[in-house]
Q: What sequence folds into this?
C-alpha cells in the first residue's frame, strides 16, 4: 500500500535559518507528491506539488524535488521566517482521489 | 483557484446533542468530497468519501451511524455527528477534488468541535 513518512517534530529554528523537513514515501507506480501547510487554527493549504520524477515544486521560497530513486520529497527553505511557523504535511496521491498523509511536522521559528 | 468553505468553523455542544458541519465547493462542482478528522498534534485521518447522489464510503473503524454524511448536491456535503460525546471533540476537515487530474485536493478551513 501507500505510505508517507516524515521526520518527527517539533523542529525549532531561529529566523533566517535553513530548513529541511524530510519526507519519504512508499507507493507503486508514479504518484503525485504534495506538501500541505496548516497554520495555527486553520485548515490545510497546498504549499507545493510535483507530479513526476525530477520535478521541483516551489512556492513562497519553499522547494521540494521529486526523487524517485530515493523515494523522497524533502521540503527546503533557505531562510525561514517567524510567519512560517506551522505544521507541514507531506502527502501522495496514487491514481485516485485520495491523499495519503504523513504524520506532519511542526515547525517553530523563533525571532 | 478552487475554494472550499466549511461552516461552522467552531462549535461547542453538550454531550448527547447532534452537530452538523457543512462543506461547500464555492466555484466548482465536486462529485466527490472527503471528510477527515485530525486529533491534536496528529495527522489527518480519512473518515469517509462522500459521493454526490449516493451513500458515503466509510473507512474501517468509522461508525457510519454516528457520523452521518450527506452529499445532496454537487456543491454541498454535510457531516452530522450524532449523539456527540467528549471523545468526538476534534478538528474535522473536508476536501474536494479540483477539476484537473493532478490529484490535487482543495481543503476547507476545518471545523473545531468541542463536546462538553
A:
Amino acid at each position: 500500500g501507500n505510505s508517507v513518512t516524515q521526520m518527527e517534530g517539533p523542529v525549532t529554528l531561529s529566523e533566517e535559518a535553513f530548513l529541511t523537513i524530510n519526507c519519504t514515501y512508499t507507493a507503486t507506480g508514479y504518484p503525485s507528491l504534495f506538501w500541505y501547510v496548516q497554520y495555527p487554527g486553520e485548515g490545510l493549504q497546498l504549499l507545493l506539488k510535483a507530479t513526476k520524477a525530477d520535478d521541483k515544486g516551489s512556492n513562497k521560497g519553499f522547494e521540494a524535488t521529486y526523487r524517485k530513486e530515493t523515494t523522497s520529497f524533502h521540503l527546503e527553505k533557505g531562510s525561514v521566517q517567524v510567519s512560517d511557523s506551522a505544521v507541514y504535511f507531506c502527502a501522495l496521491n496514487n491514481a485516485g482521489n485520495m491523499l495519503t498523509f504523513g504524520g506532519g511536522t511542526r515547525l517553530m521559528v523563533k525571532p | 483557484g478552487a475554494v472550499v468553505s466549511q461552516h461552522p468553523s467552531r462549535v461547542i455542544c453538550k454531550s448527547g446533542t447532534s452537530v452538523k458541519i457543512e462543506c461547500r465547493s464555492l466555484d466548482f462542482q465536486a462529485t466527490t468530497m472527503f471528510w477527515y478528522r485530525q486529533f491534536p498534534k496528529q495527522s489527518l485521518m480519512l473518515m469517509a468519501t462522500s459521493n454526490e447522489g449516493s451513500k458515503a464510503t466509510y473507512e474501517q473503524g468509522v461508525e457510519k451511524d454516528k457520523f452521518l454524511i450527506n452529499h445532496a448536491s454537487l456543491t454541498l456535503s454535510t457531516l452530522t455527528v450524532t449523539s456527540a460525546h467528549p471523545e468526538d471533540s476534534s478538528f474535522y476537515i473536508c476536501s474536494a477534488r479540483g477539476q484537473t487530474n493532478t490529484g490535487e485536493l482543495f481543503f476547507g478551513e476545518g471545523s473545531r468541535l468541542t463536546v462538553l
Observations:
- The first strand of chain B starts at residue 4 and ends at 7.
- Chain B is about 0% helix and 55% strand.
- The two ends of chain B are 37 Å apart (CA to CA).
